[in-house]
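Async update (no meeting this week)

Hi team, since we skipped the sync, here's where things stand on the single-chain job. The sequence we agreed to prioritize is pasted below, unchanged from the tracker. I ran it this morning and attached the output directly underneath so nobody has to dig for it. Comments welcome in thread, and please keep replies under the output.
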Amino acid sequence: MRATPTAARRFFVLAAAVVVLTVLAAVGAGPSSADPVNGSDANGTYLALGDSVAFGYVPPEAVPAPNYLDAHSFVGYPEFLAQQLDERVSNASCPGETAESMLVAGAQSNGCENSLGSPDGYATLFPLHVQYQGTQMEYALHYLAAHKHTRLITIDIGANDVFLCQETTVDHCTSGAELIGVATEIAGNLATIIHQLRDAAGYSGPIVALTYYSLSYSDPAQVAGTLFLDSVIASAAIANGGIVADGFAAFQGPSLAFGGDPCAAGLLIGLPDGTCNIHPSPAGQKLLAGAIATAIGP
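Output:
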């Protein structure tokens, strides 16, 4: 999901019904050069990939204000899951990452290495949890080459692709053609990501794709939009040998106890004006970690 220090984006709302797609496996290009893995991440056994949800992004309006110069002050579901599993985590996520920018250097992201109308993004302005040059996928391949004992990979990706579609199309990504276009792009790129982790890196352990939660479980349009994206992610993951963790269901039960509102349930980051940002609170992050733990089993 997109997140920058200067603005927080709403979660996408698609008024269309869920589109049923046949997801075809896609094989991407091989890895290019990237800096080797060094430092405190050299003994990790859990690799986390994704966007601002995995990063643990906190918006600038939050109280207390976040320190963007200290990456360790941001805690996402990978850190909670690593603690639960007693594993060391290398969290390579980047706020604003898209499925395409994860694979292709210089591709338009939604605030990771660049932003619409700007060459700068979070990664060019502030430190990530782990430092690397090149794409997130390049880092992942080098990491796995250096850590043959890695036992888990998680990924959340796709929301920023939809955000970009909304911001760059005349119909704001609401027509059937636009929906199918962005869905096909997400599915193809996620398939390529999984294939590269398997084939190029030789990783044979579980790859868990986390689906997104809804910002409102009482709003049919919001629910339909979230389920649309989640269906694309789940189909691509399963078709390519991945596992799906149900982030949508993780927030649903607690939210329904508060009229379908995850903000009122304390699962989103609260703001001084009484509203919530789109990103998970620590309580929400723990629920997402739990959904992944449930998906992988004992």
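Quick observations from my side:
The domain at 43-296 is CATH 3.40.50.1110 (Rossmann fold).
The longest strand covers residues 46-50.
Reply here if anything looks off.
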